[in-house]
Specification:
heterodimer; A: about 110 residues; four-stranded antiparallel sheet; about 0% helix; about 50% strand; B: about 110 residues; mainly beta; seven-stranded mixed sheet; globular
Chain lengths: ~110, ~110
């Protein structure tokens, strides 16, 4: 079965600074890859996804992620963080078969300093 | 377009009691998922339905958890009897074309 590792439990960045959240996956073929954001007490909101094609994908709220097959990674980036970006971020890997069986990482909590 | 609806939003029960959660997916979505999210962890898939059939329930603790989606639309997840370790947020998601859309979740506290 597929699995996801998010090495960073907690990251703190200053507002306006750049951000990179790491995600490594394990899967025997090309997976579906997702980043979700969860604010306190809220459900999960999809930021972006990769299914195939261009390995650099653009998402909502100014986020982007790059699929690197050789490194089994799908890191999330943002050039300039806003205070409202403080939240929990989850990377997920889906098996591209009927139904998209998905596994989530443990999450990275982002704190934004003023 | 209406999102995934879940109720109740919060529930507090004592251990050994039973509880049920309800989910109404986005209209037209054939696939429905139930996840358990324990505090500080990522969501864990409990069960996946395709229409009214079960696709994957390998991580569902079947001795106490059950789920159904009788008409292929809304779904219920039941826990009977509840244990302290069942305290978590229960998320419902629906999807198509590989994407999943999540509801707000039900926060369960077992005392």
């Amino acid at each position: 079965a597929q699995s996801v590792t998010q090495p960073d439990i907690h990251i703190t960045v200053s507002e306006g600074a750049s951000l990179e959240l790491r995600c490594n996956y394990s899967y025997g073929a090309t997976p579906y890859l997702f980043w979700y954001v969860q604010s306190p007490g809220q459900g999960l909101q999809l930021l972006l996804k990769y299914f195939s094609g261009d390995t650099l994908v653009q998402g909502i709220k100014g986020f982007e992620a790059e699929f690197k097959r050789s490194q089994s990674s799908f890191n999330l980036r943002k050039p300039s963080v806003h205070w409202s970006d403080a939240a929990e971020y989850f990377c997920a890997v889906g098996a591209p078969r009927f139904g998209n069986d998905m596994r989530f990482g443990a999450g990275t909590r982002l704190t934004v300093k003023p | 377009e209406a999102g995934v609806a879940q109720s109740p939003r919060y529930k507090i029960i004592e251990k050994r009691q039973s509880v049920a959660f309800w989910c109404n997916p986005i209209s037209g979505h054939a696939t429905l998922y139930w996840y358990q999210q324990i505090l500080g962890q990522g969501p864990k898939l409990l069960i996946q339905f395709q229409n009214n059939g079960v696709v994957d329930d390998s991580q569902l603790p079947k001795d106490r958890f059950s789920a159904e989606r009788l008409k292929g639309v809304d779904s219920t997840l039941k826990i009977q009897p509840a244990k302290l370790e069942d305290s978590a947020v229960y998320l419902c998601a629906s999807g198509q074309s590989g994407e999943q859309y999540f509801g707000p979740g039900t926060r369960l506290t077992v005392t």
